[in-house]
Structure formats: C-alpha cells, structure tokens
C-alpha cells in the first residue's frame, strides 16, 4: 500500500473501494468496535484515517484465517499474542478437519452402499466411536463367538488380540474400512458363520482331534498359495498333473506321525479345514483390520484357496 498523508481520511464507501470489502461488512466491524472511526462529519458520517485502513486489512486477514470476532478484538487490543492465537486456532482447525474427514467417510460409505436413511445414522455413530468402544465391540464379538464352548485358548486369544486401532489422524480409507469392519462384526450372518466355525472347532477339541497347524504347513502355506496362483495363471485345472502334485505335497506336509497322507479320510479332513477358512467374509475381516491399523495390505487368495480345495478333492477324498 503506498504511503499517504496521516491526515487523509476516508468514508466507508472509499474504504470499500480500496479494500474490496462490502460497505455492510465495514460498518459491521465498526459497530463491533473493531474499526472505530477516526472522526465524524457534522452530519454524523464516519470517517477513517490511514491507520484505520491498515487496521481494516488486518481484521480482514484474521477473519479470512477463520479467527472469530472476539479473538480478533483481543489481538487488536494486544490482550493476546498472535502465537497463542495461532496455536489455539490450529488445534481448533485440526479438530474441525477430523470431523470433516469423519463426515466424508460416512458419505462415501453411503454412496458405495446406496444406503437408506436409517443406515446413515448408524454409520455416522460407528464412525464417531472412541477407541475404547471400538475395542470393546471386538471383545464382545469374540465373547459371543465362544460363549459356552470349550475351544483352544491359544488360538482364540490370537484371534481376538487384533483390535482396530485408528490413528489420531486417520486416512479416509482407514475410516471407511472401520465403518465396514464395524458393520461386518455386527452382521447376523457373519456372526453365525464364525459361531458355526467355533462350534465345529469345539467339537474337534472335545473329541481330542484338534491340532495346531504343523510346522510344515506354517512354513510352506504361502508358497502353496503362490503355486496355486501360478497354476491358475497358466490355465491349469485342479485335476491336472500340476494340481494333483500340489495336493500331494500339501497332504504329505500336513500329515503327522501315524497319519497316512494318501488316506481319503485324512484328505477329506484337510479339505474341510481349507474350505472352512476360504469364506470371503473371514478374509475381509483381516483385510479391513490391516487397512485400519496400517498393516501391509492383505491380498485376496480366494481363487487360490478354491484351486487348492478342488485339487485335494480331485486327488482322492471320501465322497460326501
């Protein structure tokens, strides 16, 4: 702004032309005490000097930064420092951004699901859950899944130990994953699926038939999945020589002392185990947790699991 004589005075209309602010806004600032007039004409019209013009530009800058009128007034009166003012407003903006991200995540979920009105309220409540409530939701889910069942404690402790843990500043995809995850663990069909799996698990424990995966299964599982993917990409069928050879290797590595890997009954149980873990909803549970918690992405292995199951079936199992 070029220097001007200190004696120069402006009407509100001239201030408006120089600053681009509406006359109504300038008059409002003046009425609120943020821009007291330098003097008045005999007719009572307000006049402002060059210092008032500078002050008006400062008021506009602070307002454009989202600072409220009371804080602008305190800053102009030197009742607070700009550092303190900026600190408090950065905190407020961070909270506002967090709320806006929550709203965006809910609205994105609404678009994806083409949700009805009742679902929108539920999704909004889910998105705003505090950390403690999110963890409690998972604990209550697993409590119901094993209620009254004698299950392998070590296995289910591992299952329930993974909790959704959103960061303080979650990415949009993490919020969307949390909404989907919360809906999944509250879905009656999914709960029934996991409860049925837990019931079958408890039966094997009661019959003394439950066994943790063998060391070979743990060490080679991902290699077998990769082999299944290679076979699929090559267009090989599950009952092809490659598919049967893979099924034989899996059966041999999975057999414990005293078990015959070629026994149709053994392969039938192995097939049941693989098929049970191949439900896409179970896989989605862990994929969503990975997104929420910032873990490495978990790719889908549905096609590979179906190939392994079909290869085992073709290699010789007891007829259903």
From TrEMBL:
Q: Where is the HTH merR-type domain?
A: 9-78
List the PROSITE patterns.
Answer: HTH_MERR_2 (PS50937)
Under the heading Pfam families, the entry gives: MerR_1 (PF13411)
Keyword Lipid biosynthesis in record: no
| UniProt keyword list | DNA-binding
GO molecular function annotation: DNA binding; DNA-binding transcription factor activity
Designated name of the protein: DNA-binding transcriptional MerR regulator
